[in-house]
Amino acid sequence: MEISRRDFLRLLGVTATGATVGALGAGTVFSIPEHLFQRISDGPKIESWKTSVCSLCPGGCGIRVRLIDGIPVRITGNPLHPINRGAICPLAEAGIEMLYHPKRLKNPLKRSGARGENKWQEISWEEALQTVSERLNNLFRNNRNNAFHVFSQNYNNYQNYFLEEFMFSFGSENHHVENRIAQWALPVLASQGWNRVPAYDLLNSDCILNFGADVLDTEPSPVRYNQIYGALRNPGNNRRTDIIHFGAQLSRTAAMSSQWIPTRPGTMACLALSIAYIMIRDRSYDKGFVRNSTFGFKDWTDSEGITHKGFESLVTGNYYPERVSKICGVPAEKIVKTARRFAAAEKALAFGGEQAVNSPNGFYTSWAIYCLNALKGNLDKPGGVLFPSPVFEPPVSEKSPAYDFLKRNNFEEIIGNVLAKKPEVADTILFNRFNPVFNMPARKNWHQVLQNIPFIISYTSFIDDTSRFADLVLPAPFFLEDLDLYKTVPSIEFNHLTVQQPVVDPLYNTRGLGDILILLAKQTDLNDFKWKSYEQFVKSNAESIYLSGEGSIISESTDRSWIEFLKRRGWQPFAYSTFDEFWDVLLEKGGWWNPIYPDGNTKRIFRNKSGKFEFFSQTLYDYFSNDKGRAEEEFNLAFVPHYDPPAFLQENKVFPYSLIVFPQLSNYNGTGSRSGLVQELSAIYSREFWNSWVEIDPYTAGEFGLNDGDGIALISATGRIPVRVKIVPTLMPGVLAMPLGQGHEIPGEEKIGQNPMEIVDKEIDSVSGAYSLISTRVRIEKISSELS
Amino acid sequence: MAKWGMVIDLNKCTGCAECVAACKTENNIAIVGKEQSEMGRTMLWMDILTLYEGKYPDVKVRYLPRPCLHCDNPPCIKVCPVRATYKNEEGIIAQVFPQCIGCRYCMAACPYTVKCFNWTAPDWPDEMAAALNPDVSARPAGIVEKCTFCIHRLQKAKEQAAVEKRDIRPGEYLPACAESCPTRAISFGDLDDPKSEVSGLIRSPRMFRLLEEIGTEPKVYYLSESE
């Protein structure tokens, strides 16, 4: 850049005085909007702090926002908050940048070009809501309530409940909540009838088997798991915890473990059952627990006199290490050693995540892993699997299909129907901050589906890959401008509630979803929708916690032992004379928690008919009993954990390599791509800033004569993308890995990096309906151009 | 007089890069954009070095956060022709941005490559100007910058202590990276105070410093992984 001597001196003068207050310096170096410039340059520079919750991922970290004269300047962690204890992640740091992002939506938009062209006309809220209510009224009059669909992301916030209530009043059953954590809950439902994600007590465990759960980078709560892993590796706590990580990739989570055991993608069920095999053969499982509290371990006979094979004979008959070793690529002696270490540990647990369970056989994989905990007999015990008492949730959640883990996300069915041109299925769709075109496989299908739907509404803060196809875009406030509640994060062992307090007035003409729904209810005459404002809904939910008298508002003096001490003596830490007083303190501190783990009776964790841990799931049997026409053998296998060899593992000459996609902490699922901060930091390991890359092992790279930074085309049956290569020794040979989150496609905006979902084959777990992220087969071509 | 130093426990560090993000936002470090970034001009005061050890399958990945090491015997200040970088009485290697003439001798002299050069004037969208930290001035094009141990925070802590007529308490002055590290892998404090946390930690047998043999005496210490 050319800079004249005079300019230079001028800048020097400015920054010299800018050492205490940057406003003046900033004013010269950048151009600041007039009203803000006035405020930051003339204001008294009074610093204040407000608590809230970060809603850029479902992790639920409590935050404290630093404000100068009421203008947010930095997000830090809330030190009182039990989830993150004052820490946050790089994505949360980018929150401020995104709040002020120039591409934020400022007014409601009506489509003015062709669909997907990203051409808009600004309209008023009155006109926007009028358009929506006319459509809804029309559907209502013609008894087509179910043709109104809502797709929501699941961020543990209360707005989804409110939406659920609205949909209930409207009479549509089609509220679809993306549930990325269903695979964590399903095995517990199958075996125990417990319809929630259990908590894993990693901190008190001596031996942890982690089957491909990259918990340091993604769901359920990355900052918390970073802290847990950090604490487990600290030798100061007198004992060493062995963390054994299975996965095709040495991820950051694997790097923090004591041992990484490379395992072929899609075969983790086999591996888990082989560990079970050793435990059964050695008779080192918890015999008391298995005898007294489980069902289906030994062979058994049902009421019709048919004999079913038990878990024991299924496992001992099929999963001997020598056979499993060939399938998983793990040496047999390592399987035996790991199983014996697991069995010998006083407190041990096993859990699995994305790289294991986002697979075509994901449910059974997840279940096989979960069964190791039953063999270990660690359910409801310290250092094992914990079952905190149910959280406070609005009553609507009980009847809500969206929270039924067994009900599949019926995206597939809807896509199928729309493609088959059945217009009665979907007339109007609302995408509630949800971006399937970017995040899901089969993007071409989505493009076609969206073209076929008569009316699409998008509620979002930025135009994204999905909302560009909308007919109407409603601008959403950023989380720092919006009031909400954040419920207990799945897999956390204590109940908590965090208030998402607006820390700044909305910068633009945006409206909260709750208030939009209230106006729509009025305009569509939904008489049984009783709420007057979203604030009323939020407060009434907070009030139910206040009235329960349980737990405590988080504060400096309420650690777990102190609350337990008081509770045992019939006291509670604080008393509030009115709810308003409680509410004020809640806003000031940021949240509420109840760290007390329910006492005693282990019976409570078995909510199924047998009241036992079921290796043969009668819950599933009842659920799918209308499928009984299937062949007996296969049908029986459907109710026990087993390994189902996925089709993608077959020898494939056209597509010889496997591709797995992995999440990154600083970009979650592409939420952060708009932030320059995220772009200049999420590639800190690969040094491909503002880009994406594919990781490749040195052997495969050698075959193609590739060096770091060379271009290749990744070609799958679904598509082809050009991408740069990063050679790492941290992958199983023959497996390629690519990060998620880059490659947004919005007309008129520069595309940064590539989106691996463009080439991910659409494969779905038959039980949960979850998309597979590890089952794509690819081939490689070396290229020299087309790379940005 | 305090002597400020940092200890980074690699056993606790998970490589999450929060320190990098905290540093960038706290210090208004410029976002250089795609084009500049391609030329290797991404500005990171705190960086994370990724090191691979061993061969597949017995491979280890190590993450090593690397701020300015604030050497007690710093090579960078000796080459500065205008004394824009100097060691202050509390051991912090400070930068006087307006005094820097952009000769980049210090960048060449630094064995740890911690310094960044502003190739262009920092550029934020209008809307974002308000989001900058008012305690730290933005740097114009043509000067060198680096980690300051968040010296503006020391200034604030000192002023507060002066108002209350007392000394700075331990933990009252923390750089942004140490404050926000999720696993508390970064400790910070007075190395001259035998009772401080950092002086305890540097007596650990796991302690090492980067390129110790060249005699720069860094005041950023590392604790190696214990396996």
Shape category of chain A: globular
CATH class of chain B: Alpha Beta
How many domains comprise the coordinates of chain B? 1
**Level of helix content of chain B?**
10-25%
Radius of gyration of chain A: 27 Å
Low-confidence runs of at least 5 consecutive residues of chain A:
1-33
Largest sheet of chain A: 7 strands, mixed
Q: From the alpha carbons, calculate the radius of gyration of chain B and give it in angstroms.
A: 18 Å
Report the helical percentage of chain A: 25-40%
Q: Would you tell me the overall average pLDDT of chain B?
A: 89
Largest sheet of chain B: 4 strands, mixed
- Adjacency order of strands in the biggest sheet of chain A: 5-4-19-18-17-6-7
Query: What's the number of helices of chain A?
Result: 29
Structural class of chain A: alpha/beta
* Rounded average pLDDT of chain A: 83
Strands side by side in the biggest sheet of chain B:
8-1-10-9
Number of helices of chain B: 7
Count every beta strand of chain A, where a strand is a DSSP E run of 2 or more residues: 30
What structural class do you assign from the helix and strand content of chain B?
Answer: alpha+beta
Structure report:
The complex is a heterodimer of chains A (788) and B (227). With 788 residues, chain A is an alpha/beta fold. Helix content of chain A is 33%, strand content 17%. The radius of gyration of chain A is 27 Å and the shape is globular. With 227 residues, chain B is α+β, with helices and mostly antiparallel strands. Chain B has one domain (4-223): 2-Layer Sandwich (Alpha-Beta Plaits), CATH 3.30.70. Chain B contains 7 helices and 10 strands. Chain B has helices at residues 18-26, 33-38, 75-79, 105-109, 151-163, 176-180, 197-201, and strands at residues 4-9, 47-53, 60-66, 85-87, 93-95, 116-117, 144-145, 186-190, 207-208, 220-223. In chain B, the strands form 4 sheets. In chain B, strands 8-1-10-9 form a 4-stranded mixed β-sheet. Chain B has a two-stranded antiparallel sheet with strand order 2-3. The radius of gyration of chain B is 18 Å and the shape is globular. The N and C termini of chain B lie far apart (37 Å). The mean pLDDT of chain B is 89. Classes of the chains: A alpha/beta (788), B alpha+beta (227). At the A-B interface, helix 1, helix 2, helix 3, strand 3 and helix 5 of A face helix 1, helix 2, strand 2 and strand 3 of B.
